[in-house]
């Protein structure tokens, strides 16, 4: 999974933030709930639909970290993804998203 | 409310304290300003790559500062985007979502690593090192770099980074500043008991500096309010922390600006 043209900053968001980040490249952590064909679903404080690229290796029920572009329809077009194993604490992932935006001076330029 | 407060006033740095803050031992040592430099440069500070890229030098060749506190050792996490191996050093390009940064590790010819650096490609690593600048390009010289086995360590790192940033810019949270109250003090906050009765209108979780400044503002009755410099002087909150403390109080709506942006009066909630 090479890192093609990833913008230098990828704010961490979850399902609740998709609408605000249309057309931006973001980073999402969630639990893989289903993979079928070119699409997948993850749960990141709510459902997120992923449009996969050909070499995505998502493992159902594991955590995944995904970098992608938020499309106008609210789906995420995946640029890169990584498997995070089965032991991701999703409540912390939610807290990370919260502090990312609450104290964004530490994480990204607005 | 003695201990963290006195430290902030005496040390002048306000900051540095975080590392020592929750461990009384270090903090109890004499805190003259001449020892600030050493203490600060002996700390290990968790940061994001964005913070590293934005670190400033107050004088040309001086130490790097983040949140007005001198950087010593720093630690951060990132995913390895590329590895370049040379005769004397290995350069890793790291990305943590907040920016990208070169990390250089010197090769110790006497104890060659048994693992290829290329194995770290595309993995999260934790770096411990120091910020360097060479012909205007920044890199971190790594003392240690290792793969992160558990993703939760990455998440933990970001929370720790935020906690340190808030501590250095806003002062310690209240429950760590009371001599005996501890956690209990926070629990009774809503009831307005204990030594916080005079500030019982304030919500829990407010920084100590904001609380100290509010104490100076709350009894102001003049229509024009009180000037921020008077509040700073009376509360002893250092300049570089005062703005954040005021912003906190404004955001909460417990104070408001009067005739200009430098005068504040308490919101009458009763």
Automatic annotation (TrEMBL), chain A:
Family matches, as CDD domains: RPA3
UniProt keyword Nucleus present: yes
InterPro entries in the cross-refs: NA-bd_OB-fold, Rfa2
BP term (GO), one: mismatch repair
Chief location: nucleus
Domain of life: Eukaryota
Subcellular location as annotated: Nucleus
GO CC terms in record: DNA replication factor A complex; site of double-strand break
Keywords: Nucleus
GO molecular function: damaged DNA binding; single-stranded DNA binding
PANTHER family, sorted: REPLICATION PROTEIN A 14 KDA SUBUNIT, REPLICATION PROTEIN A3
Protein family according to the UniProt entry: Belongs to the replication factor A protein 3 family.
Protein name per Swiss-Prot or TrEMBL: Similar to Replication factor A protein 3 acc. no. Q92374
Origin species: Pyronema omphalodes (strain CBS 100304) (Pyronema confluens)
Automatic annotation (TrEMBL), chain B:
GO biological process, alphabetically ordered: DNA replication; double-strand break repair via homologous recombination; nucleotide-excision repair
Pfam families, A to Z: RPA_C
Compartment(s) of residence: Nucleus
Keyword Nucleotide-binding attached: no
Biased composition (Gly residues): 7-24
One GO MF term attached to the UniProt entry: single-stranded DNA binding
UniProt KW keywords: DNA damage, DNA repair, DNA replication, DNA-binding, Nucleus
Keyword DNA-binding on entry: yes
Source organism, top-level taxon: Eukaryota
InterPro entries assigned to the protein according to its UniProt record, in alphabetical order: NA-bd_OB-fold (IPR012340), RFA2-like (IPR040260), Rfa2/RPA32 (IPR014646), RPA_C (IPR014892), WH-like_DNA-bd_sf (IPR036388), WH_DNA-bd_sf (IPR036390)
Segments of this protein annotated with the region Disordered: 1-45
Replication protein A C-terminal domain sequence ranges: 165-261
GO CC annotation: chromosome, telomeric region; DNA replication factor A complex; site of double-strand break
Family as reported in the entry's similarity comment: Belongs to the replication factor A protein 2 family.
Name by which UniProt lists this protein: Similar to Replication factor A protein 2 acc. no. Q92373
